[in-house]
């Protein structure tokens, strides 16, 4: 990877050299479909042949007329020439259309899938960073359009090679008229190229500002489409704020675009002036030569070549500018997909022995979120032995969920280390570790797939029916699923199936629990799994926990201190530090903050005997 140093703004992103990007794109193309390279070469050949027809035919017609060619011969030659021209132009159009479709396939199959997979597997901590969100926006820009970024690069290269070959051929012809004419054409085209490059350079400089504004707009659009956000937006009339911010971003984008446009406008004006000078000098010279014995057919040929030459040249400068722009976009894309991860995703260690529970040690762990000033956790040390049930309690913001995210491997400690079965988590293959743990997060998340697919993470045919039934019973979802017409194969939400259903908050939480049980993981983490459950479901769940957690290491978070009594050990967190630690009874005896909180809660929550409640209800 080559880094460029001290480049002006807008050019700083060239993390890879142009040559490196050529190798990258065409190596990938070769591996994806070799014929794409062959069709590209064919497109170049026909791109060059087509305009040649247009300058040669008029010249031949003039020559035939001046030679008084018999009518039949004249018609035959013309017909053959036009037929040939038609065939060449037809093949050229076919190749352009075919390559366009193939490049779309290549872009989507190869690069879009790679980007999606990177987003889905990249370290969570990295993906959360604001800078990485911007980097992703830029990487997507590289793949979003046909004529930009990755695909634009491929199209432009075909055009560039065609234009260079065309230019060389035209230069040979025009130098036959007079080398000075060739020199003049080159000089004029160079001036045009400089002005055009200035405009492109300015556009490139403004790219970072535009990306920032687009990230803002994308966020606002997402809020507008998000049903969850929709409730609060309606309730608190946040639509006005969204509208204002969207308009502001739009306005700023417009200002930048106007400035860019003014540079291109200047480029057009200079272009008109230069064309005026070019045509005046060249036509004047050719007319002078005509009056001094130049053949009319050559005169016609040179006229075509003069105007064609400038087109080749201008397009080449345009191609070069566009290729360098797309090269930077490819750099953005590669920067994202090649981003180094903090965890090992391949080649890391694996914890073997599938049936054994995990042993987790937090060793002097401190953690600070990116951009935050203070630690959320400070010097936290504890040991969850194999098969042990640990509870984490503490007031809001104490750092409980942060410990969960660290234990899951979503974040890495700022200081200290986390050991899993004696191995530092940094040395583990994180994706294999994910397979060994199951978590029920506070905020339930489901995909709009069937219930079975949501629970098992498998496509329907692979779902194990016996296992599923057990899981549904354990999670308390069995009766609900049985009542549904399509049972386990009922879709959630209506995105994929119109008959999809909406689960209540408590039912969703049960579904999350079912998913965690189905995974049969060696470490089970439950972050307030009963927060949305009614009193009966909650009590039933506690009864099942004993069975559910048997032999597994588990971490349990709850604000209801009474609900954590079944755990072997309770850690009471305060301001990111362990304030008290021990069994429920030990902590009560300690008579510290935990004991006081337990007493206060006792006043609000009356302990419920589930059987008593059920009897009363019956
Ligand atoms: N992604 C984040 N970026 C920055 N700060 C964060 C992030 N997530 C949490 N925090 C901060 O870390 C602190 C601890 O949050 P955490 O969610 O771990 O607390 P908690 O004990 O689980 O709280 P609760 O009981 O409310 O769920 C809070 O002050 C919170 O503002």
UniProtKB/TrEMBL annotation:
GO terms for cellular component: plasma membrane. It is a multi-pass membrane protein. It is found in: Cell membrane. InterPro entries: AAA+_ATPase, ABC1_TM_sf, ABC_transporter-like_ATP-bd, ABC_transporter-like_CS, P-loop_NTPase, Type_1_exporter. Keywords: ATP-binding, Membrane, Nucleotide-binding, Transmembrane, Transmembrane helix. Gene3D superfamilies: ABC transporter type 1, transmembrane domain, P-loop containing nucleotide triphosphate hydrolases. PROSITE patterns: ABC_TRANSPORTER_1 (PS00211), ABC_TRANSPORTER_2 (PS50893). GO terms for molecular function: ATP binding; ATP hydrolysis activity; ATPase-coupled transmembrane transporter activity. Its main location: membrane. SUPFAM superfamilies: ABC transporter transmembrane region, P-loop containing nucleoside triphosphate hydrolases. It holds the Pfam family ABC_tran. This is ABC transporter ATP-binding protein. It comes from Anaerocolumna cellulosilytica.
